[in-house]
Amino acid sequence: MRRLSLFGFCSVLSLPYYDLIGVEASFNKDALTKKSQEASLSSKHYDDCYKIKFSITQIYILGYMDLPQIETDLQNPDFQYRLKAIAALKDYDADIAIPILTKHIKDPEFLVRTFVARELGRQKTSESFASLLQIMRFDNTPNVRAEAANSLSLFDRVAASHLVQAFFKDDHWLVRRSILAALVEMECYEEVLEVCLLGIEGEDATVQEACIDGLGALAASRQAEVALTKLLQLKDSEFEYIRVRVAYALMQFDTPEAKEAMSKLRQDSDYRVVGAAMENLLP
User: Fold this and answer.
1) Do the Cβ atoms of 131 and 157 come closer than 8 Å?
2) pLDDT at 233 over 60
């Protein structure tokens, strides 16, 4: 099943996301708590987030909606009606669904636009592909662009070069992490290496961590040598969070160089790095 990465329901801030697989909702509360504290959010935001969680889950267990009702709900000023209408288009063929979806690419509510991006991913046509590219280039909300990237990945390798291009042009952490995850899942390892090397040189810590993990995913690929070389350089980083991720990534490599680096990390001055490097020794 396709993961639904509907990011940022909780506020205009870029909060962590939850996944919906089928109609089962799973909410990453720990990640939300951490990010919310960083943003100094009030407790009311937590309540709002959980209300939205259950609201979205209910949308995806709704039954079939006929076309006239969809058209009516799409004109409703209450965005929740528009959400239900967009979600209901999953039951319709591309020739019906795509013209309706494209009309709402610029809906004033970002959550509706996020649903539009998701549903366009279900419809694997040249028109939906072009619409998703448009969303990634021009939408002003990172959450929506991230969902468009996720939907583009459903077109498999034909989307890889477009995702790489978007990674280079869009430096928002949410978009970049979404693109990297998609490329890894698509097993486009050459492109994974390309974006990881760029992301590591950026300033966003969450992107750096994801890119180091991405290098670890290349251990069994033709890009393994280059990935390992970069990881060996990063093992001496001044930042402990970098060294922690390097330790986890090096576990994927079965080479003398990787083992020597792991031995050094087990003697690191930071206990978190030592703990990460020791994990593969546990029975």
Assistant:
1) no
2) yes
Query: Cβ(16)–Cβ(33) under 8 Å?
Result: no
Write the single-letter amino acid at 150. Answer: N
What domains, with CATH codes, occur in the chain? 188-283 (1.25.10.10)
What six digits make up the tokens of 138?
């021009």
Nearest to 235 by CA among 221, 253, 247, 220: 247
Q: How far apart are CA 253 and CA 219, in angstroms?
A: 6
**Nearest residue to 6 (alpha-carbon basis) of 53, 42, 50, 61:** 53
- 5 burial (CB, 10 Å; 0-12 / 13-18 / 19+) is buried
Contact call for residues 72 and 84 (beta carbons, < 8 A): no
The SS3 of residue 26 is: strand
Question: 48: which residues sit within 8 A by CB, 6+ positions away?
Answer: 10, 11
The dihedral over CA atoms of 261, 185, 62, 107, expressed in degrees to the nearest 10, equals 100
pTM, entire model: 0.79
3-state secondary structure of 258: helix
Instruction: Name the DSSP letter for residue 4.
Output: B
For 74-91, what is each residue's pLDDT tens digit?
A: 999 999 999 999 999 999
In the numeric block, which tokens belong to residue 110? Answer: 């970002």
> What are the tens digits of pLDDT across the range 105-154?
999 999 999 999 999 999 999 999 999 999 999 999 999 999 999 999 99
Burial 191-201 (b: 16+ CB within 10 A, else e): bbbbbbebbbe
Do the Cβ atoms of 98 and 131 come closer than 8 Å? yes
Q: Does the pLDDT at position 26 exceed 60?
A: no
- Over residues 238-273, the pLDDT tens digits come to 999 999 999 999 999 999 999 999 999 999 999 999
